[in-house]
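Dear colleague,

Following up on Tuesday's group meeting, I ran the structure prediction for the two-component complex that the binding team flagged. I've pasted the input sequences exactly as they went in, so you can double-check that nothing got truncated or mislabelled along the way. The structure tokens for the whole assembly follow below. Feel free to forward this to whoever is handling the docking comparison.

Inputs:
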Amino acid sequence: MTPPRQLHLNAFLMSTGHHEASWRLPESNSHAGTDVAHFQRLAQTAERGKLDSIFFADSPVLHGNVAQRPYGGLEPTVLLAAIAAVTERIGLIATASTTYNEPYNLARRFASVDQISGGRAGWNVVTTAGDAAAKNFSLAGQPAHSQRYERAAEFLDVAKKLWNSWEDDAIVADKAAGVWADSSRVHPANHRGTHFQVEGALDVPRSAQGHPVIVQAGSSENGKDFAARYAEAVFTAHQTLADAQAFYSDLLQRTAAAGRDPDSIKILPGIVPVIGSTEEESLRLERELDELILPEHARNQLAGLLRVSPESLQLDAQLPDGLLSEDEIEGAKSRYTLIVNLARRERLTVRQLIGRLGGGRGHRTFSGTPEQVADAIQGWFQAGAADGFNIMPPVLPSGLETFVDQVVPILQDRGLFRREYTGQTLREHFGLAKPANSFERVPQPA
Amino acid sequence: MTPPRQLHLNAFLMSTGHHEASWRLPESNSHAGTDVAHFQRLAQTAERGKLDSIFFADSPVLHGNVAQRPYGGLEPTVLLAAIAAVTERIGLIATASTTYNEPYNLARRFASVDQISGGRAGWNVVTTAGDAAAKNFSLAGQPAHSQRYERAAEFLDVAKKLWNSWEDDAIVADKAAGVWADSSRVHPANHRGTHFQVEGALDVPRSAQGHPVIVQAGSSENGKDFAARYAEAVFTAHQTLADAQAFYSDLLQRTAAAGRDPDSIKILPGIVPVIGSTEEESLRLERELDELILPEHARNQLAGLLRVSPESLQLDAQLPDGLLSEDEIEGAKSRYTLIVNLARRERLTVRQLIGRLGGGRGHRTFSGTPEQVADAIQGWFQAGAADGFNIMPPVLPSGLETFVDQVVPILQDRGLFRREYTGQTLREHFGLAKPANSFERVPQPA
């Protein structure tokens, strides 16, 4: 009997959790965002659950109104390095922007995290939406969506050249002869492109997994094409099974059309599991959280997402007419469409929509017992909608602990999820091949 | 009786050590440069010795010929984060370039390391000499020396504004009222300058020591003026006591002229201690290392530093006439002058000069017993040449272990160096005050 296909599970970590009111719970750590020990313990919990990886979102800007909820925190590549030091196996994925970084710097930093962790690093590539970030980098506003994606593509091409600078066996370390490396196996990038000219080799040798796993999370048309070309794991947000299935098969087709094996990309929709020992308890926890949402703050946030004035949104009315189309939006395009469609489809008032978004900002919120959460995961997984899930606990650390201690064992008992790690690197956890080195001389048959 | 003035000691760490042939010793780890455990153990050794700090140099480029000795390694801010996770007290100083970074990114990353380490971070500010680095960042060659320092000064101004974005008590965390931070105590940078426009507040709250300690290591005229204005610790290289004394008093005068308390800057010359249990043993170790130097490689390096062709340097002759003056050099100016003066003053042949530079690249190499090394340190310290030393072990880990186990106890017995840490932050170790927050509203007397 063939063992069933295996799930991939990532824990998406955010200070006190994904529910925007989680910080107001009595047990929540008010300084969680800058508390490295908090994140180290979360990573150890995820590792105890044999999860594939943990993940941090990022944008180089202080978003939102700090009066109304915690914002800010730690830059994720340095945070991952501090977590690498206290974990052994779990994959470590950080977000970083191709719009506001230089490829040499970023390729180098991710290569270093990959070395420090023994090949456990992943990079969630983002182009960073919003004028606020642009204004921290001497720009008047954000570059256009298509321009950001064009730069991102060239950025990835440069990063890959840099990660291939050193062949795996370049370091020969012949002390007697005084030869440290075989310099014919260390290659300059020699990149001359539209956005970047990068001449030299990277100063970090190639890691155990070749290079960090490339993750992507944008679901716009540009985003999906980018994912098909470069991504090895994709985080995505869907409210319905049909939407998730359509996205899944569309992305596999695009990946094949880009000349890649569809098995070389893993698709993980987000899920916000609100777990109770009974259905009632899970609904009570969900209500408790929703009641802590500050409606004015949430309305301001929603107005920002929809590019309308807060006053145009009436809490007890549906969304106004005349909203922009996705084409007119210059960032977070697919999230915009998801929210508008959700509101229209279910005829939600602004207040109801805020409740639905408060837990997961557009990701699927699912309340239930551990058994029901496992069923929800298995259902989408086996219906061709996912290779696994991006777990977004509404409250941290408790939501991750409950997931690891109560949901993971059910998935293990059903034969859907590993009981022990079988590999060392993030690539091995995700079932991804180590990429070939583009510079490596393939021996020719005689 | 007043206790004597206290020494400050920093350990400058480099893969297998500062002697360029150290990697060829039988016991040296050929992969030390990318081995995080190697550096974590070194940091723990330095912490066992109650040293103020450890330090990593950096340049975003693969320097030199990897055939001839190890080059490359780990990006130092992520390396420091991994070290912070396994240490408690030791200060953590990384080098980063103002020429090839954006202030928002770098201020954020150092602020994050400062948070992760509980206020133990330091930033060695460099402007990065050399065309090779420039060519990794879409430039044809390096910007002029003065232009790099102009940008560096504005970079520091922006970084300080960003580090002051959050007042110390900005986070009020009133869960009942739903107020997380007092937004009147979080300030946008609003920087509009020549090189940078940075609008927003940093997304990392202020650290336990206010902001990372600013370190500087350039000794050109521009470098010394920059240090006088911004630096809180200075690494420098001198071969003679007279040069070190002249530098020390000159820099204190410049610091006072810049309107700062001369006590707010600590000056640490580099020393390469070759330690043996007898004088003979230390000289034997020095000879053993020097004999492992590859003369052709060292001649190429020296030729690069002197901006001449390797063929113009005869191993058994003195330096040729007609070398450039410091004014004509566009990077590492003061190191250039130091090397030329050393060779001329002591009438060294190229081969002898190579031997002198091989151990410490222009820093003072001192061979002797632990007692003699302690004497050398005490001598300069009490002769107005130093506030402490930048210890550059020729071989790692052994050179640091010997220093910590055999030299530090002598300095402690002489009452010159702490037996236990008295503070938690790097600023406390260095005896530097926590900087005031420029945005803080000072209460007015009634």
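Residues 245 and 385 of chain A are 4 Å apart (CA to CA).

Cheers,
M.
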